[in-house]
UniProtKB/TrEMBL annotation:
Protein name: Dehydrogenase/reductase SDR family member 6
Functional pathway: Siderophore biosynthesis; Amino-acid metabolism
Regions that span the bilayer: none
EC number: 1.1.1.104, 1.1.1.30
Alphabetized PANTHER family for the sequence: DEHYDROGENASE_REDUCTASE SDR FAMILY MEMBER 6, DIHYDROANTICAPSIN 7-DEHYDROGENASE
Keywords for this protein: NAD, Oxidoreductase
Reaction(s) catalysed (UniProt annotation): (R)-3-hydroxybutanoate + NAD(+) = acetoacetate + NADH + H(+)
SUPFAM superfamilies the UniProt entry points to: NAD(P)-binding Rossmann-fold domains
UniProt key word NAD: yes
Top-rank lineage group of the source organism: Eukaryota
């Protein structure tokens, strides 16, 4: 029987992250998934919006990786998975300025960690979804002045005629966390139904 321990931590707070890391002797897989989507161009992005988005989307991964990587290095094995996005250095997306910038930084962070620690048995990859049908997305759609049109606009850009499901993204994450992907590191894994094409 497996015992699962649950704890809520603000991953943007260094003291909370370091306290969490002290509770573990070893971590096989670290999945950095906390994120925030800001809507707007650079002209709609106030400095506070920029700082908040970068803090949640990038700085949290920096803190978590720095806290847990030494535990992986001690065992000469470990696997870090970062949540990025197709809206990044992969594809420019309207009204996603700071979000896309932050996710491009995640791709860079992923490749840097992979290159620096490859020979010490550490793998690092990132997942780059397109539009995923989640409660967060539905909430952002409902927050628009015309939610019905906002949903139509999201659907119009889906070349497959549907959005990605959270389960499909989870399957990719399970693959990256498993031994089946043992020879995979430093890569961005796109799951967007061809949206970037």
């Amino acid at each position: 029987m497996v015992s699962i321990k649950t704890k809520v931590v603000d991953v943007t707070k260094k003291d909370q992250v370091e306290a969490l890391a002290k509770e573990f002797d070893h971590v096989d897989v670290l999945f950095n998934v906390a994120g925030f989507v800001h809507h707007g161009s650079i002209l709609d992005c106030e400095e506070a919006d920029w700082d908040f988005t970068m803090n949640v989307n990038v700085h949290s991964m920096y803190l978590m990786s720095r806290a847990f990587l030494p535990k992986m290095l001690a065992k000469k094995s470990g696997n870090i998975i970062n949540m990025a996005s197709v809206a990044s250095s992969i594809k420019g997306v309207v009204n996603r300025c700071v979000y896309s910038t932050s996710k491009a930084a995640v791709i860079g962070l992923t490749k840097s960690i992979a290159a620096d620690f490859l020979e010490q048995g550490i793998r690092c990859n990132c997942v780059c979804p397109g539009t995923v049908d989640t409660p967060s997305l539905r909430g952002r759609i409902q927050a628009q002045p015309n939610p019905e049109q906002a949903l139509k606009d999201f659907m119009a850009r889906q070349k497959t005629g549907r959005m990605c499901t959270a389960e499909e993204v989870a399957h990719l994450c399970v693959y990256l966390a498993s031994d089946e992907s043992a020879y995979v590191t430093g890569t961005e894994h796109i799951i967007d139904g061809g949206w970037r094409l």
